[in-house]
Amino acid sequence: MKRAPPDLKAQAKRAALNALKRARRIAARTGVELSEWEGEFLGSVEQRIKTYGRAFADPDKVAAGAPLSMRQGVKL
Known about the structure:
Structural class: mainly alpha
Oligomer: single chain
Number of strands: 0
Mean pLDDT: 81
Radius of gyration: 14 Å
Helix content: 55-70%
């Protein structure tokens, strides 16, 4: 029996959400307090990924199917 091909968009979505969680955990573990802006950034990106499957929809700034823009990926 053949397996269905992996859902690349779902994998990218999970990876992006895990990166956001990892960023929060690392900040908490190292004692770094996130600024209000940083907390809002992480929260809004997480919400957009959960709702739309991606946080950025400008095709000039994000690869097709990628959940985060290049700059958002760098920040994380």
